[in-house]
Request: fold
Amino acid sequence: MAAETAGHAPTAGEYIQHHLHHLQSNFAFEGVVQKSIVDFGVFNVDSLIWSVFCGVVGCWLLWLGARKATSGVPGRFQAAVEILVEMVENQAKGVIHNAKSRRLVSPLALTVFVWIFLMNAMDLIPVDLLPYVWHSAGPAMGYKDYMRVVPTADLSTTLGLSVSVLLVCLFYNIKIKGAGGWAHELVAAPFGDKWFLYPVNFLMQMIEFIAKTVSHGMRLFGNMFAGELVFMLIALMGGVWAWQFNPISGGFWLGVGHVIAGTVWAIFHILVITLQAFIFMMLTLIYVGQAHDAH
Reply:
């Protein structure tokens, strides 16, 4: 835990507040002309580290599945990868009817599903394990003591993913319809190609793009943030048992409840992390599919 709670056992509020802090860094640029400092904002370094880590692991697993693919009887790992690939391809065929587009979109959707599933699965690691390792191995003072390990419980990560999907949709809007065709659609839909409706149509199109992007990222963030909080509350039960251990006190039974509740929630959370990865993938396919449709 941080230095402010080093002298005593933290309260429940201090414990949760500590675990909700990110390892952050400020990146600034010193101007050449005016010698001024331009702040590029705050980066959640822990989310960047763990999202890259999960991405590398996901790419390695998919590469391993492709490398071990055989025409004979597949092993369990190859069969699992083939089932996953076939599932994503079938979903893509049902949404995107352009076979040429699917050559890029299907692998993209597969990558999105695997990557988000692995980032979500970081929530199954005991809450204090990796922060404790970081605290023991690294500096133990200031903001450097913080470490959150679930990238999808960080709004900047999920909105970054949804903005990336938006950029893909904009790319296909221009590629399929042409710059002129898409520009005309922005002012001609959804209320019709009338000059006096152009401002209203354009405003509605912008609202639609913003709403899709924000809701896409917020849905994943909200579910994973809530799941992370539940794990923290369950960990608090075990913390009370550890700090106030007494075989005949209520603290002891909190320890038993900690094990039972943690196990039950972890099993249920496997469904949650899989479902959220699938929903994000499906919405990606749907939004890209809509970019192919002309109004």
